[in-house]
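Cross-check.
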Amino acid sequence: MSKPKHVTLNGQEVPFEEGETILTLAKRHGEEIPTLCYEPRLSVVGSCRTCLVEVKGRGRMMPSCSTLLEEGMDITTTNPRIERHQKALLALYMTDHPQEHESCETGAPCELHQMAADVNAPRDWPHMEPIRQSRPDDRNRFVEFIAEKCILCSRCTRYCDEVEAVNAITLTGRGAKTTISTTDQISLLDSSCELCGGCIDVCPTGAMTEKKPHVQQAPPERELEKVRTTCNYCGVGCQMDLNVSNGTQPRHVAKITSPPPGTTTNDGNLCVKGRFAYDFISHPDRLKVPLVRGEDGQLHEATWEEALQKAADGLMKVKAEHGADALGFISSSRCTGEENYLVQKLSRAVFTTNNVHQCAAT
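Predicted model, tokenized:
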């Protein structure tokens, strides 16, 4: 068994694993290092430079997200030099970014504003109007790009390439006019985009955001209550967070967000249904009580006992007249695994037929 390797992190000797970076080691030991372009699901580009740290013996500061650990390294993650760098860098980022934190957060949190506030970055530097232009005319219903919030961290384009593997969006233009766009500026609906919303999830500034009006009018995400639940559209069982508003309006789901990467089986990823198709929750046509068809041929509200008895009587009548194999049971992937198990148990043990299926075939 090989001897563990060690580095010094802020004066404390700690072991590390082969291939580990300064950033992952620091996070494991509770050290906060700001990052903008880093995302654990994506390749490391080290372009934002917010995560620079000092390594003894190296003249310049090193990007912690891309610097691999070596035996004997002496690493400092915070000191006056690093703090000066962070303040100056974040002040530069803010010069062409919406200035007010509250007005910037329309539908998604802005990590840049929060980081600038955390390090007390100067806000008296001249503000420059952004050159990049938004594309409000894209006819897709879900994803909007607000160019003046974009800092070109490329999280969204890397996610589209490396996780979704569809390359619907990319960095286009040159110099100060570099922006996020599609090929020939076509609509996302005409591209290979799957409208999964992953670009929204990884964006640190809200440049990629939801187009739904009620999302942009909702309170900031930090004021919403997050309720972890399971997506009920298929049998995969993706975990997601309902963001519930308790403001002046009745309690309602304002939007859906992903859990942090690495914490759930879906690793923070969702499809278009899981992220955007939640309007049925408060839809006026949603059934709230059982309905039973009466002698007049119309549906009438009933109690659960009445509805279940009506269904049982009908099924038993078919079995008595035509045999058990005249019955068939179809369950839904929008049910839980336990509920689907009960359906097949009801079919096989109670009504003695193997004619049972579920749309996701789990």
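The first strand starts at residue 5 and ends at 9. Residues 3 and 131 are 54 Å apart (CA to CA). Passed to J.P. for a second look.
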